[in-house]
Specification:
11 strands, 16 helices, Spore Coat Polysaccharide Biosynthesis Protein SpsA, Chain A, two-stranded antiparallel ribbon, 17% strand, globular, alpha/beta, 320 residues, nine-stranded mixed beta sheet
Length: 320
Amino acid sequence: MTLFSWFYTYVRLRMLPAYVIDAFVRMRTPKESGTVREVRGDVLRREKKRLCLFAHFDKDNMIADYVANYLRELHALGTEIIFCTTSTGVPDKEINKIRGFCSLIIVRRNIGYDFASYREAYFAAGNLGEYDELVLANDSVYGPISDLGLVFRKMAGSDADFWGITDSHEFSPHLQSYFMVFNRSVFKSDSFKAFWGGFDNYVRKSVLIQKGELGLSRILLKAGFRMGSFCEYSRICAENPDHLARRRYQMRGGRTLNPTHYFWDLLIRKYSCPFVKVELLRDDPTGSLPDYGWEPVLSESSPYDTTLIKRHLARVTGGK
């Protein structure tokens, strides 16, 4: 291929819609699950009534202390955990950190992002009939920084068939995928099973969000299931108009805001949100962090050990 033809092909591909590019790449991606190995954890299968499918990735092939702490908290709440990581070089010494909280640890190739890991763990779990609740969670958040048990108890009293910590109205109403919970009627439904049976290894994040995060909520709502949120976006906007106005001015527009970016401090201080996004504290993508930083907000609202966050941030940012 000449330099000109290579450049022409590159430009044409850049101009193609994301869905087309994603489909082309997936044609060249193996369809198999990509599982490298499985490790049995110390927790007996089907010992609990709540199952969590946990998606993980770490560029340094580590299981960070904040992740181990998160799993410990889930386990203490009576949750069985199937842990799925795309860090294929993770050593046994790292896996041993979490074996006491998990029934199964899956190591798979890094394809398809968190929803592909959820899918892998879902099929590894087999028949879910003995569980009352199914949780999908990942390592994109620090926490829980408040009582996660309180969240489960409150949402158990709601009429929601599936719920999350935060919902979003970007593109269409949906749950944000870092923490979602489904009751038995949902995860035993044909709609839920069909979603995972047809889910592919999407390689572009924009396509994954449409097919995964938005797609799952959209399919379940269409099937007649009721969606709920612990920190409901519309209620937070209605109760905090001044905060909403400031954030909208900050982004120079009136479109829907991502609550975990623009309302993060409000969620923690006023609504007992148990998580804060890793990317927010690492990158501050929206300029929402105050000049004095994030730590005072967490320290005044939570007993969470912030050294877990600081150690992880120091490693992934190179101390910046």
